[in-house]
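pasting input
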Amino acid sequence: MESWILKILILAAGLLALGFMGYLSASILREGAGNEKMKEIYLAIRQGAMAFLRREFTTLAIFTVVIFIVLAIFIEPQPLVAVAYLAGTITSALAGWLGMNIATQANTRTANAAISSWAKALKIAFSSGAVMGFSVVGLGLLGLAIIAFIWNDTHVWLGFAFGASSVALFLRAGGGIFTKSADVGADLVGKIEQGIPEDDPRNPAVIADNVGDNVGDVAGMGSDLYESYVSAIAASMVLGVIALGTVQGMFLPLLLAAIGIVVSIIGVLSVRPRDIEANFEKQVARAHATMNTGVYVSNILMIIASFFLIRSYIGDLGLFWALISGLLCGFLIGLATEYFTSAERGPVKKIAKAAESGAAVTIIEGMATGMMSTVIPIILVVVATILAYIFGGLLGIAIAATGMLINLGMLLAMDCYGPIADNSAGIAEMAGLGPEVRQRCEALDAVGNTTAALGKGFAIASAALASLAWLATYFAVANISVASLTNVDVIAGVMIGGMLTFIFSALAMRGVSDGAFAIVNEVRRQFREIKGLMTGEAKPDYVSCVDIATKRALKSMLLPGILVLVVPLALGFTLGPESVAGLLIGALVTGFLMAVMMANAGGAWDNAKKYIEAGNLGGKGSDAHKAAVIGDTVGDPFKDTAGPSLNILIKLVGKVAVIFGPVFVMLIPL
Amino acid sequence: MESWILKILILAAGLLALGFMGYLSASILREGAGNEKMKEIYLAIRQGAMAFLRREFTTLAIFTVVIFIVLAIFIEPQPLVAVAYLAGTITSALAGWLGMNIATQANTRTANAAISSWAKALKIAFSSGAVMGFSVVGLGLLGLAIIAFIWNDTHVWLGFAFGASSVALFLRAGGGIFTKSADVGADLVGKIEQGIPEDDPRNPAVIADNVGDNVGDVAGMGSDLYESYVSAIAASMVLGVIALGTVQGMFLPLLLAAIGIVVSIIGVLSVRPRDIEANFEKQVARAHATMNTGVYVSNILMIIASFFLIRSYIGDLGLFWALISGLLCGFLIGLATEYFTSAERGPVKKIAKAAESGAAVTIIEGMATGMMSTVIPIILVVVATILAYIFGGLLGIAIAATGMLINLGMLLAMDCYGPIADNSAGIAEMAGLGPEVRQRCEALDAVGNTTAALGKGFAIASAALASLAWLATYFAVANISVASLTNVDVIAGVMIGGMLTFIFSALAMRGVSDGAFAIVNEVRRQFREIKGLMTGEAKPDYVSCVDIATKRALKSMLLPGILVLVVPLALGFTLGPESVAGLLIGALVTGFLMAVMMANAGGAWDNAKKYIEAGNLGGKGSDAHKAAVIGDTVGDPFKDTAGPSLNILIKLVGKVAVIFGPVFVMLIPL
């Protein structure tokens, strides 16, 4: 087929995604936002979330300008890499903004729809998740394709992916610190000191907590996967050009992404919830099954379509099998994650049982579970990597990463559905809607916890494969044929890479504990100084809590942000480019293990608490419940801050290495 | 100098160490064991400890026979490697037995001496630590020297070190699970449920807890460092033969070890405590200063002596500087460990402060502190490795590891002093000695906590350098000149190595939580079924608790023990020898980081609790104290089970690789 036809098809797919996103947004906004009380709450959440994004983006803008200047001066071809970088940051930030904009509109509409129809509420929450999904794939594909069609230079394409990383660093790590500072802070004073329930409107930190769900889980998750998506495709394009030549190498990944958009749209459209009787368990099961239909439909269509595409366009099926190994790896990691974090399975029940012996044993058991849960994912990643390599060489690894992410439109719809459902349950509580409505929202929320756990496993696995693809890209652009462990500089690199993971996690966790502490002080101050707050006569100052959490989050981001950029450069300029290869592997291995451990330990503690709250082992208020609450609180920064931030770390160090790789090689003539 | 003179000097140094050990043992046994009550308690502890060792050694014997047969059949030169392996296990087990035998005699004698003289008590506890120290260096040097003088075959020497590893696996990991099962179990029922103080004789798990201090901290620490010591010397000899030729290569490390014994003896003899007024802080400071004198004396003498030895025997001072980098690295890691775990410093005070916000924040802050505390040690190890390599090539790295361990006689005296002082405080409590005596013992114990933290940092650092030396040895024996990260098999190895660390830690932690659970049930049963236990009229059944903890510990050892042997072999036979190099680095980096994190987080939580108990932030019984107790309990398996077990893991995988390396190479012609 002629190149220009392929180009048009690819651009058309990107536009189709954006059009579909627009259609979904319009249909959500047509729904009613509920009564005055609900509108008031949703506006507060929305304003808080937008205020957070504005401030994040301001800091991000300064950061971007600095990097832009550095790239424009040092990185060839000048200033094209810098321009592509800028395009990458802008599209990524735009995707985050679009998705979050709708998410903050959808939460109250989901709660409002739940008054009349459970199915409609599910539909709204899922559709608004899909808005994030299709902003990401649409802007990602369009941005990358336009850059690639204008400049036929692999380093420029990589610059675009680097731009996506900067945004992800801010939204994922910064958002993660924000959301858990607010959450932990709100719980510490509200639930524990004042004895008021979660999501009680008298708690000054309650709006900040709900804002956190949006900025951490919606915008953060979206930007994280935007980065993985763009990274996997860009790495496939660069390695594709080396393996298959300029034309096929560039087009194959873009065509796969284009097909992915079409099948994701079909997948989303096949999610058609119907109302059923008001039974919590049945609603949860039905919601799960309904969304799974979409996943299965899009996966099966994708397998068929990519088979024909690769057979007709490349001829050899090796890359198809590489793609399948990535897809299967992602799917199986999802199952393993579910096993370790689901309240119906052994591990979570064992943690709940341990809670009967107190908080310490709960923590020990949860840590052990989290560590153990790394085994299957790492073996799956190893097997997928080796298979992908056997089937398609280094390009095979990048295609495996792409295979995992190809249905991202559909998968992200399911991931981002979770926090929206969570918010709707919060609004139903705060607005005092009836118990039946609240139960409906909570059924949606319960499914959201599982999809969120799956999403986390998936985000980590895709980050690992994408980083391996970038390691391969690094070897190509820095012209490294050997980085041997017999070389002490390489070993030093591996150790420093591992250290980065630990510093990064420590700073993220400390960001949360410092932030929570600041929130606790502010909430205590308000309860002390605002007369009539406990009785409901006076209103708390929600804005100040949002403000404090935002400032803390941005402050805590500073050092990790600098380290992740500076350490690979410093190592490259002192111990040389091979040492940087060691750093990438060191960060990848430790980052992957710690991220899986933290995500699954956190998820398992969360569900152990829910398992007890469902009336097991003494139920709410028992000693076991108190111990489980402590476990859950420890798990919060594990699963929603430090863990996810490590995804960004392992991808970002690879990008810094790839972008600056040619400079190390020039300067260090070792 | 003639070879035979050198041989005699080396053997004489080994015998000198054993003679000195005998002299110290005799002087300890001359002291009185106290009144009937004290004798009864010490006999119970001693019987429990010996029962544990007997059962461990029985299981170990089966394990040893299996490995012996495998080595005798498959590993050349047959059956010499197997014979050396057997010699390594027997000497290591013997060192553990000798040290623990005296430790269990010394605890009551320390308590008894404390009645009349604080200085005498300190002297006894320190001398019995020195018994462990000199059994280790004496048997280690003699064993290795005799093997080397009989068989001039490097692979046979390595077999001896492999033997030491098997014992360390059982004593360190098994002992670690035992001690913390008993400790956590005793505290959960005793302190929390029944409200009786620590070390109360009514608690049926109290003897098991004291037995644990001996088997975990004395025998476990001793066997761990025996392994590091023998490993570093053996690796130096093998790399020495390659770098310096057969004669100098073999003799230099042995001569350094011989000098180390002499200077350690001088160091121990220069520890001369004098009685001072009864003030807790002053006693702690004086005890610390007294023991530090010994460390400084032996270090300074060692630096001078090794300078002259290397200058006269080798001519080139490169290896001297390599040795100094190892020695300095160990010393500075000790300082860093002290900073992060001492109650006088910022990090511990911050954790104590966090305890005011509850248990969850205490755990989060402690984890963040532990993670952060990895930064300095890993940078120090990287710098020491690079310097040692620059000064002396691969041999330089092995000599740096030797340098860290050369004063082991003195250092281990200080390390093993801690648990003996701890036990003496326990006996003083149980035997109801007066408050002044108890305070004296507790002052000794408080110093012991610091020296134990230093010892842990030191054990990990030496394990890391020793493993790097074994990695270099592996490259030599498996004839690997390149193990490049551009090879997916190497990357797969790194990931699987990282995974081993996480499985190993998870199983160790779970061993503790399962063991503690079994102890809790047994203690509850005794309180329920034995009439008059709470009132002190009836005596608890101490033996059954010791039995349960022993069985659990051995059962929990099984899977990690098998994995650490089987996984490197499986990888070597499937993905080839280069993949195993990846595994060693993966295990080393993750194992080192996790071990430091766990040891320091655990130490910091422990001291945060002590800081609060000293009357800060509300003191004993406050909410902050309750939160700190939870932190301390979580820290127990971190610092005393999982963390130390990782030292063994990172050394043992290296040994398995080195011993079986030649077989991989023969079978896999890739």
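fyi Chain A has a mean pLDDT of 91.
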